[in-house]
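Illustration 12: Ribbon-helix-helix CopG family protein.
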Amino acid sequence: MAMTIRFDDEENELLRAQAEAEGVSMAELVKRSVREHITRMSVLNRLMDAWGPLPQDQLDRAAASLGIDRRSAAALGPDAQRAAS
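Figure caption equivalent — predicted structure in token form:
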């Protein structure tokens, strides 16, 4: 199945540069990235099933230690993680 994805100029340049650095086509890089994301989310969901979700304060502390904005950390919460899978 074919799909059209629109990137802005900056995203397109980043994608082109990364594809060139890896020696693959931009389409292959996008497909690989989608597969890797789906795999990560699957692993994350299995961990959450085994351990339960992390409380938001723990996510906020982890985000702060990585220099991630708190609003971005909220997107890492259990509901957002499950919705993404």
